[in-house]
Structure of GSKIP protein:
Amino acid sequence: RMETDCNPMELPNNTAFEEDSDYRDFEGTDVKDMRLEAEAVVNDVLFAVSNMFVSKTLPCAEDVAYINVETRERNRYCLELTEAGLRVVAYNFDQTDDRLQTPYHETVYSLLDSLSPAYREVFGNALLQRLEALKKENQS
């Protein structure tokens, strides 16, 4: 039997798919995921900066979230988190500057390492303490 192209006029005019709650929930998970990713980034390094939180002013979308960070040197940044990584998009909280062409960093550690010597020191010390603790555990 030969296949024929479907005539769009023969298709039922049914938009239930768009209204289906499962579909709506699935669509919403992507948005939550980028926000969750941003929250995880914050929780990972909050101990090594003065202040850090996901922006409530700038919109989180399926593919982007914004994080405000204040380093121990008291410098403020707004970071953009996307699939490409993290980058500085402004030198203040809750702002973006399209003229700013900063490089993407694969990790928040790499980004903060480049911005804040105090972060580097605090993070390094925490790492050393953790290693010392592991060494003691292995010796007992």
User: Anything to note?
Assistant: The two ends are 76 Å apart (CA to CA). The helical segments are 16-19, 21-45, 108-115, 117-139. The longest helix spans residues 21-45.
